[in-house]
Design brief:
The chain is mainly beta. It is built from 1 helix and 21 strands. The N and C termini lie far apart (51 Å). It has an 8-stranded antiparallel beta barrel. Strands 9, 11, 12, 14, 17, 18, 19 and 21 form an 8-stranded antiparallel sheet that branches. This is DUF1080 domain-containing protein. GO terms for molecular function: hydrolase activity.
């Protein structure tokens, strides 16, 4: 070994050790719960370094997409703060966060756009095992074609109906949630929507796959086939409004594959965290399917789940 190569290896080793030693304990992905408007709502936070000292991140509130955090200010290795512009919130000031790492968990407050103060807590997002070739169980048709047995809504408006074997959301109202919960699965759905409509399917009730009238637009994570605010499809495979369309979705751990109308638009990608509108932030647990009904009309004629065996 030459002296030059030896020095280079030593320098690289020291650099790697120094980098490892300077990782801030706040860094990582956190599943949050916030006491908002009299109830507990899920949220999500990511903190990571940019360069040697700057901390940046992303935040998902109870609604809306993932929002970038340009700078997170710290006080020591436990206290932090940041502000973030409003998205779908009422007019007012930026939201201001203050948090602290206590015994491995986060705790803090948020000043909302109207000046009210929201308390929140956070735990590290769990690691979720990936199985390369799971053994699949028997397919389950979650709709019986006659009534809404096995499903419930999250609001007072009961606008969902089944007509001629088709599940129909005629107008904005309550979301529809499956009684049964699933962990790893394959999902086949057939759906259609009218012009300008917008809906979505929440996997485990936490990760929204967008359904919307976006044919012909450049692909985006907030358009047809995307995992809302996180994963952009590699092409926009949407058909015209009024046509029947299909999703075939495989979710194992955090890794998702989405085949839209026969085209693989997201291939074995990692979902970073929950999306806005999620039922909860308990990512390590099985979850229900939720069909978005609070936006626009949508119809389904098939909703088949094949769970993985354990």
């Amino acid at each position: 070994m030459t002296l030059y190569r030896f020095i280079a290896i030593v320098f690289l080793s020291l650099s790697l050790n120094l980098s490892a030693q300077t990782i801030n304990p706040l860094e990582g992905r956190w599943d949050l719960e916030m006491e908002f408007n009299g109830k507990t709502v899920p949220s999500w936070l990511e903190i990571r370094h940019s360069g040697h000292e700057t901390l940046i991140g992303r935040f998902v509130f109870a609604f809306g997409s993932a929002r970038p955090i340009s700078e997170i200010k710290t006080e020591g290795d436990s206290k932090f703060s940041f502000s973030i512009p409003r998205q779908w919130e009422p007019e007012g000031s930026d939201m201001v966060f203050n948090g602290e790492l206590i015994d491995g968990n986060l705790k803090g407050s948020m000043v909302y756009t109207d000046g009210s103060v929201v308390q929140w807590t956070g735990v590290r997002a769990p690691k979720m095992a990936y199985v390369e070739d799971p053994v699949w169980g028997e397919p389950i048709q979650l709709f019986n074609g006659k009534d809404l047995s096995g499903w419930h809504t999250d609001g007072e408006k009961k606008q969902w109906v089944i007509k001629d074997g088709v599940l129909i959301n005629p107008e904005a109202g309550s979301n529809l949630i499956s009684d049964e919960k699933f962990q790893n699965f394959k999902l086949h759905v057939e759906f259609r929507y009218p012009e300008k409509s917008n809906s979505g399917i929440y996997l485990r009730g936490r990760y929204e796959v967008q359904i919307a009238d976006n044919m012909g637009l450049d692909p985006m994570d907030i358009y047809f086939g995307g995992v809302y605010g996180f994963l952009e499809p590699n092409e926009n495979a949407a058909k015209a409004a009024g046509e029947w369309q299909t999703y075939d979705i495989t979710l194992i751990g955090r890794r998702v594959t989405i085949v839209a109308n026969g085209r693989t638009v997201i291939n074995d990608q990692t979902i970073p965290g929950i999306t806005g509108g999620a039922l909860d932030s308990k990512e390590g647990e099985p979850g229900s399917f939720m069909i978005q009904g609070d936006h626009g009309p949508v119809e389904y004629r098939s909703f088949v789940v094949t769970p993985a065996k354990y």
